[in-house]
Amino acid sequence: EFAVVGVAREPMTSDAFRARMRQSLEEFRTGDIDPALADALVRRARYLAGDYTAPATYAALRDLLAEIDSSSGTKGNYLHYLATPPTVFATVVHQLGAAGLVAEADGRWRRVIVEKPFGLDLESALALNQELRRDLAESQIYRIDHYLGKETVQNILVLRFANSIFEPLWNRSYVDFIEICALETVGVERRGEFYEQTGVLRDIVQNHLLEVLSLVAMEPPTTGGADDIRTEKLKVLKSLRELWSDTIPRNVVLGQYRGYRSEPDVSPASVTPTYAALRVFLDNWRWQGVPIYLRTGKKLKQRLTEVSLHMRPIPLSLFGRSDVCEHLDPNVLTIRIQPDEGISLRFASKIPGNDFAVGPVNMDMKYLETFGGEPPEAYERLLLDAMRGDATLFSRRDAVEQSWKWITPILRYFEENPPAGLPNYDPGSCGPQSADDLLHHDRREWREL
Ligand code: BG6
Hints:
binds 6-O-phosphono-beta-D-glucopyranose; 13 helices; 3-stranded parallel β-sheet; alpha/beta; 449 residues; 37% helix
């Protein structure tokens, strides 16, 4: 009782589409493929060529879906996945609406997944939400952020709320600062045109990093239900201290890798940032005064996404010789989102020997060793959740608007005051010197790559 219909402008037969699906499965799917399952899946694929703006495309889609309903038992339940350019999101939804393809009735469900970027700033995000609401109820809209589909991101909730030992320490009394990073080794590849309009603040910070931050900093929700979790995440975004023209230069550092300007479809004078480091604060009881450092960029030394809670130093060290002032490394809890998925805790240990020498050691949980096999692809989980009607891992309207509300003044500031000195970091490096200076100013260092 399942079928996939691919719709795009490119003319193609269903057979050619199936061949492409099979090829892609082999090329991109990690792990073993069950040939019988792959056959069954590919057999259920159909293709329809058409212009997104033409009503005829949607009339043909309606006929095709009706035929599939009777041949495959799909009962009129449709999940429309808009993996389209963002400029046509509203058009496609209006056309689906006009063709009667999103109306829910008689127990059948109709849902729409909207890809990112969801708007380019607060104004356009508000406008897009309004457009979508002309044809859809909020409960039918699934705004996707693939970070939320990552096992390790979901495990932040489990680590915090299924254990009793972390939560009592998870606050300003014990946490000195928090680091969240999403570092990539790849550049913009062939997405120069998209990236020129987006830049790192819209591409990663507004969505992926703020989603992770919300999960790390939220209060325990009343239940594990979608809305209770999303309401707590929203409160985190609402407590983000706003940055204005006088505080932005001190708290936000941008970078661009050398060579970006010669990527395809990139302007030779581009000031689009490919790197950002930010110091942010949450004005609430739990986190007041705890700096949260966000760092993300392309073409860096290492691919690494992780969250680290750096705990406060001990008040007094009892160890070390009287003539040597011993510095003990504070505890750090690190959630490695990718790669080498896992969780590690750094703590002090006695180094074997006759002296009371103390050094840091790590307790390390690795997903691969513990559970065997790679964690599933984020998109697999999210598409399945959308089919099941579980919106927990999708962004709610108010949260998307709130994140744009916070970041839009920063975007505007840099539009009016383009960052000077770009490009400012080498491919394969750890990022610009100014990002290190941001932490040195607070007498801190980024975790070493
Ligand atoms: C996407 C961004 O949302 O996330 C890309 O548009 C980025 O620029 C990608 O490369 C990173 O995702 P992942 O899962 O590889 O960390």
